[in-house]
């Protein structure tokens, strides 16, 4: 298993490369943050160095949660052809390339922010995974063993459409795995308190996404049904509770809670534009972010986020009724 050591060097390389080529100047800037150029506005988060560092933290956290496993799908054989949707800075794809040197790994993203020093079996391409996968519709291009997507479904206009594209490009018996945080905070007894700052933030974000784009977040609890409707079988779910803050006495939980909270602090300020769609002013947004950060440092508030892993298999033969319960 490849380690995450050295990822800071990759970020440094990306930063130096973008400055040398002038690529950063061609990206739109708003509120001091840089965003993607290709299909401008399709994805609401920035792609600058701060966001890249946040993605690195997220990768380290997820690898910790999954005990250094890159995926949970029970593939009988090592994958030979792998696609990573919305690959971001590409750390998952790079580690897959290290671990499976005989596999071809393709990472797709709206932003060309991946390093150039990668394993020889890893390729990155700028593309919009929500478009018709026209460039992939060619002979022998529906033979992927494994397609992976992490921390992206909340930003999709139509996750079900993307999943339909995925199953069309998997070979029979191929696997899809989706991983993502469900940011709503649950108390220790599993209940959701709407007064918890993170939940007030999520309530605003869900309303804004629905108002501006007709997009539903969070969609994770429904992902199994969406996968089954697309035709997947053997659909399974794994969930992991990750604390907000460092209140747990268990050292592993404390470590994960600390990283999750730093990640959330970096993510919060990127929400100004989205919250503006429902009339939240920058001052109101800043006050909400401040309340969330105070919550992360308040040891009396015991709550968790949930990390979801969904995986499923394309049937060996086409199902007669893909929407049926399995």
TrEMBL record:
InterPro entries: SAM-dependent_MTases_sf. Gene3D superfamilies: Vaccinia Virus protein VP39. Belongs to the methyltransferase superfamily. LaeA methyltransferase family. Pfam families: Methyltransf_23 (PF13489). GO terms for molecular function: methyltransferase activity. This is Methyltransferase domain-containing protein.
């Amino acid at each position: 298993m490849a380690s995450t050591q050295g990822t800071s060097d990759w970020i440094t390389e990306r930063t130096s490369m973008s400055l040398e080529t002038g690529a950063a100047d061609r990206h739109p800037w708003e509120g001091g943050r840089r965003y993607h150029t290709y299909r401008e506005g399709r994805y609401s988060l920035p792609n600058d160095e701060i966001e890249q560092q946040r993605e690195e933290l997220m990768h380290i956290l997820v690898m910790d949660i999954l005990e250094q496993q890159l995926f949970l799908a029970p593939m009988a054989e090592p994958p030979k052809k792998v696609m990573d949707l919305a690959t971001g800075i590409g750390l998952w794809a790079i580690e897959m390339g290290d671990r499976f040197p005989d596999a071809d790994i393709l990472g797709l993203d709206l932003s060309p922010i991946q390093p150039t020093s990668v394993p020889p079996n890893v390729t990155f391409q700028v593309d919009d995974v929500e478009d018709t996968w026209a460039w992939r519709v060619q002979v022998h291009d529906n033979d992927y063993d494994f397609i992976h997507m992490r921390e992206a479904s909340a930003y999709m206009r139509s996750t079900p459409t993307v999943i339909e594209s995925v199953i069309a490009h998997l070979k029979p018996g191929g696997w899809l795995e989706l991983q993502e945080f469900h940011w709503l905070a649950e108390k220790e007894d599993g209940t959701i308190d709407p007064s918890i700052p993170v939940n007030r933030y999520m309530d605003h974000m869900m309303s804004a996404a629905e108002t501006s784009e007709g997009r539903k977040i969070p969609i994770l609890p429904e992902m199994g049904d969406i996968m089954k409707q697309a035709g997947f079988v053997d659909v399974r779910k794994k969930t992991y509770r990750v604390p907000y803050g460092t209140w747990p006495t268990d050292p592993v939980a404390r470590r994960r809670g600390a990283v999750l909270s730093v990640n959330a602090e970096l993510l919060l300020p990127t929400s100004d534009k989205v919250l503006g769609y429902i009339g939240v002013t920058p001052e109101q947004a800043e006050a909400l972010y401040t309340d969330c950060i105070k919550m992360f440092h308040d040891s009396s508030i015991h709550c968790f986020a949930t990390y979801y892993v969904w995986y499923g298999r394309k049937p060996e033969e086409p199902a007669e009724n893909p929407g049926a319960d399995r």
